What we know:
CATH superfamily of chain B: Hypothetical protein af1432
Order of helices and strands of chain A: HEHEHHHHHEEHHHEHEE
Structural class of chain B: mainly alpha
Largest sheet of chain B: none
Number of helices of chain A: 11
CATH topology of the largest domain in chain A: Rossmann fold
Strand content of chain B: under 5%
Shape of chain A: globular
Largest sheet of chain A: 7 strands, mixed
Helix content of chain A: 40-55%
Helix content of chain B: 55-70%
Number of domains of chain A: 2
Radius of gyration of chain A: 21 Å
Distance between the termini of chain B: 63 Å
Number of strands of chain A: 7
CATH class of the largest domain in chain A: Alpha Beta
CATH superfamily of the largest domain in chain A: Vaccinia Virus protein VP39
Strand content of chain A: 5-15%
Distance between the termini of chain A: 27 Å
Order of helices and strands of chain B: HHHHHHHHHH
Structural class of chain A: alpha/beta
Oligomer: heterodimer
CATH architecture of chain B: Orthogonal Bundle
CATH topology of chain B: Hypothetical protein af1432
CATH class of chain B: Mainly Alpha
Strand order of the largest sheet of chain A: 3-2-1-4-5-7-6
Amino acid sequence: MTLRLQSAWLLEAVSDMATIDSVFFPFIHRFSALNWLSRRDFALSVNAYSVSQAMLLRAWLDGSYGAFSDRNLQKFNQQIKNPLELSMNPFRAWKDRLFDRQQLDYLFYWREAAFEIEEEAQREIFWAAVYQIMSYWLSNRACEVEVVCQPDEIMGLMLNRHAEFIRGREARVSVTRLGLDELAPADTCLTVFPLVFSDEENAEMTLQVVFDAWQNGHDDLEQSRRQIRMHLRKYLIDFSKPDDYYTITRLVANSKIAALVWSGLDLPPALYEQELVRPLQKALAGRYTKSQLLMKAVDRTCDAYDYLLLFS
Amino acid sequence: MLITLFNAVLIVLITWLAYLYFDLKEKATPAKERYSQLVRGVASVVDRLEGYDKEHSREIAELSERIGVACGLKDEQLQSLNAAAMLHDLGELLLPRDLVKSSKKLEGDELELLRTHTLLGELHLKAQIEELDEVPSLIRWHHERWDGLGYPDNLKGEEIPLAARIIALADAISAMNAHRGYRKRQYAGDADVIAEVKRLSGMQFDPQLVKTWLGIGCPLSGVKK
Lengths: 312, 225
């Protein structure tokens, strides 16, 4: 699921069509992809595909939540001096498969400690920092690179990074967590659909699976994987059903502009034009009069291009 | 007899085409070299204006190439990597000088403005070269981080093209190791730079690239010692 959302490119491309004051994302693959947009002065509505993703979007994008307080940092980011009892750890099945013993101790401690944080927004920031820490641990583990930072040090670093990340946010962010069938079209200037073509598991999806299980307090990765796949499948674009764009046409109904973004790999641009762009133009012909396809090269040796299809 | 004659003609034709291809390729090489020299020239002007005490862009391009070769990049990818590494900070020329050369830690609007140099560099180059060349995109993404907390697009992990990840690593190593007229060297010794790169593996840098860099002896520049 490689998807590069180039927000500055998107806004530049639509700037001739309208003044953008509101943007709606019926789906987003990863919270940080919306960082640039959430720094602009407009209303940003995002629908998350899972409960844990909704929490990450709130914690990392909504500046009104503020940063994690120093008082809470001192209270809840303690160093574990002696190893915890492994048999009590609900994530013990992950030992040496995903995390080492010390990391598992901290994952157990951080999850439990967070329940004692009184303010929900602060708790979500603390948990959201764990997402980044898991990403750091898992990616180093996958490459067999030794992790140098101690867990409490990395937690401090991540919360510091979070404070820097949310500084200067201007967008009024609203996050929903609704199934695609329940989601109503938003009255926004611009609706953006990031397109995904495959639910093949990559490192980011594995991280989302592990985090989802951790946040729910169990070690059953298959359960989380099934849930996430079930949600994601609703957003998958299937080339073999070129006329099946009902969801897209329904959800852009109240927007002045619709934008579809995707990243291609191993398929030449002409094929995307034939198999995706033309059927979409046909599907949206009743709603919009103009369409424009923009492309950017990423790596020509493997036909990697980023695409932006606009309707106005 | 007819088939034999046809084959003979075909062999002559293929030989002639092969000769034509290699002849043209040979003639094209100096043009490529002239292009490289031109890019190096532009990059050295950028370095001078940025206040570096040495050929910063060339150093990054050479270090990037060493890492790129170790990663098994193809010739075409190495060419794009070299050009993007040479011109990665081009966008800074379009920003106010006092902002770029500021020795204080930038915050707020000033920091946001400085960060636009990635977009400005891409836009400026795109207007000058073929639309579907990847070099402008690599310049756009040379400040992305492996953990998704970089800029401008907050790409994460392998969403960031390998060449852009390489430039990001080489640029950071060079920055840790360099001093500008208005800013001292960040790290005292080579061992400190290596320790910092290891510390940031999986956060700022691709762990696989860090491993590759460690594997080729942790070069701090493109020149082999």
